[in-house]
Amino acid sequence: MHTLTDKQRGTLLGISAYLIWGFAALYWVQTEPVDTLDLLAHRALWSVPVVVVCLLAVRRLYSALVLFRQPRTVAIMALAAALSATNWGIFIWAVTHERAMEASLGYFLLPLVNVVIGLVLFKETIDGAQKIGVAFAVTAVILQFAYYGSLPLVSLGVAVSFGLYGAIRKGVAVESMEGLLMETVLMSPIAIVWLVLRDGGGLGEYGPMVDVLLLGAGIITAVPLLTYVSASRLLPLTALGLVFYIGPTAQLLVAIFVFDEPFNLVQVMAFGLVWLGLVIVTADGFRRARQAARLRAIAARNRE
Q1: Rounded to the nearest 5°, which phi and psi values hold at 216?
Q2: DSSP H helical ranges for the chain
Q3: Spatial contact of 193 and 41, defined as CB atoms under 8 Å apart
Q4: Partner of 18 for a Cys bridge, out of 24, 140, 247, 270, CB 3.0 to 4.6 A?
Q5: Does the pTM exceed 0.85?
Q6: 175-232: per-residue pLDDT in tens?
C-alpha cells in the first residue's frame, strides 16, 4: 500500500482547505433569507463547541483556556476577533447580495495588501518586484474607481480586514486552533445577546434545511482552518502560498458560472492587473527561496 509523503499529505490538506473556503459561498447563499448579521452571530456562536471538541480530541483544551488568564493576549485576540468578524461579515454580505466576484478580487489582492501592511506597520522594506505588484493592484483599484465612480469597497474591505487580522495575530504567540477558540468565545456574548434580541436570528423561521445550515456554521468555519493548520505544518510557506490562489479562483468561478454575476471588460482588466502583479511577486519569492536554499547548502558544505 502506497504511503503518502508529508509533502503530498500537506498539499492535499492545503488544497482541501482552500477548496472549502473557495466554495463556501455556495453554503452561505443557501441561507439567504437570513440577515447577514444574524449569520455572523450564528457563525461565531456555533464555532465554539466545534473547536472545543477538536481541542479535547488533541488534549489542548486546558492550554487554550489558560490563555484567557493573560490580559495582553486577551486584548490582542479581542482586536483580532473584531477584524475576523468584519471579514466574515463582508464576505457573507457579498455572496448573499450578488457581489461574490468582488469578494474573490479581495482575496486575490490580499498578498499585495500584506506587502503594504508590512511596509506601513512593520517598517519592512519592499523590493522591486513587490513595488511593481503593488503598483498593478493600485492601478486595478483606480481603474474600477474611474469606471464605476466608486472604490471597490467589498474587495478592499475583505483584503484589508484579513490583512490586518494577520498582522495582529503575528503579535501574539497563539496557535490557530487556540486562537479560533479565543476569538469565537470573545464574540459569543455579543452573538448570544444579538440572537436573543432577534428571536433566534432566523433559527426555526425558514424551514429545517436553513436551520441545519445555521447550526452547521461552526463546522464550515472550523474545518477548513484546522485543515489549513495541518497543511502549514507539512508544507513550506512558499508551497502553501501558491496553493492559496485556489480559494479566490474557486470563488471567482462560482460567481461567474453559478451565481451568473457579470464579468465585463473592466473587471477582466482589473483581475488581469492583480494577477500580473501576483505572478511577478510570486515568481520573485520562489527565486529568493531557491537562492536562500543554495546559500544554506553552500554554508553547510563549508562547515564540513
Answers
A1: -85, 0
A2: 6-28, 36-57, 61-66, 71-95, 100-121, 128-148, 153-169, 176-197, 208-215, 217-234, 237-243, 246-253, 265-303
A3: no
A4: 247
A5: yes
A6: 888 988 999 999 999 999 999 999 999 999 999 999 999 999 999 988 888 888 777 7
Which cell numbers hold the place of 274? 492583480
Closest CA to 190 of 35, 39, 36, 45: 45
Question: CB of 170 within 8 A of CB of 162?
Answer: no
* Contact present, 186 and 64 (Cβ < 8 Å): no
Grid coordinates representing 180 are 479560533
- Residue whose entry in the numeric block shows the C-alpha cell 441561507: 31
Cell for 58? Answer: 488533541
Q: Do 84 and 168 touch, CB atoms closer than 8 A?
A: no
What residues make up the domain containing 78? 6-303
Buried-exposed string 268-297: b where 16+ CB fall within 10 A, e elsewhere = eebbebbebbbebbbebbeeeeeeeeeeee
Instruction: Quote the CA–CA distance of 12 and 144 in Å, as a whole number.
Output: 36
Mean pLDDT of the chain: 89
- Does 85 map to a domain? yes
Q: Is residue 258 in some structural domain?
A: yes
Distance CA 295, CA 301 (A): 10
Instruction: Give me the pLDDT at residue 241, please.
Output: 67
Q: Which three cell numbers stand for residue 47?
A: 464555532
Give the separation between CA 267 and CA 143, rounded to whole angstroms: 9
Cα separation of 35 and 210, whole Å?
12
How many distinct structural domains can be found in the chain? 1
Q: Is residue 1 part of a domain?
A: no
Please say whether the beta carbons of 254 and 25 come within 8 A: yes
Longest CA–CA span in the chain (Å) reads 71
